[in-house]
Amino acid sequence: MKTPSELYERNAAAWDQDRRHARPKGERRWIQRFVNATAPNADVLDLGCGSGEPIAADLIAAGRAVTGVDASPALIALCRERFPDQTWIVADMRELELGRRFGAAVAWHSLFHLPPDDQIALIPVLARHLAAGAPLMFTSGTTHGVTIGQWRGEALYHASLDTGAYAALLAEHGFVVLDHVVGDPTCGGANIWLARREDR
């Protein structure tokens, strides 16, 4: 089975089309809540930014500067074409060391493509890249394990910790959970976390 990044790289145009034309109606509401939790001049770190649409596009439209990270060069090329004034980086989010702190971070439908142990290791990486008071929003599963889904007839890897493990991990690394919704029907059944990094 190909890794998610390899699958997206090989099918970048198709993924971009599907993503932009099948947007759950409640997604904008969550992005607006996230924006409202950020400072007006916040730089946002978008992990697994894909083609930049629709999430980064919403953030940019709200006046936030975006640094997008994705492992697919083809998807980052689309970001650079569409939003040349923003910062776009081809990288594996697990190896991120940007040497700066951001005013917010989002990992929308991207964290769950990592194996459980890699998700555990990523939370402290996120903490190192966020300023005190910065919000973090991401989607996840609810039970520990791996699920192989399907996209356009190809296997697509997903994994999760259980809900309690996410909560404990966030607390361990200085995050306070502001909201957690399981199976939001307006967002295609997404499980959504909105947290804030505390000053430590």
TrEMBL record:
Among SUPFAM superfamilies, the record links this protein to: S-adenosyl-L-methionine-dependent methyltransferases
Q: Which InterPro entries match?
A: Methyltransf_25, SAM-dependent_MTases_sf
Which superkingdom does the taxonomy of this entry point to?
A: Bacteria
Q: Which residues form the Methyltransferase domain?
A: 44-133
Per its UniProt record, what Gene3D superfamilies does this chain match? Vaccinia Virus protein VP39 (3.40.50.150)
Annotated protein name in UniProt: Methyltransferase domain-containing protein
Could you tell me which species this protein originates from? Caulobacter vibrioides OR37
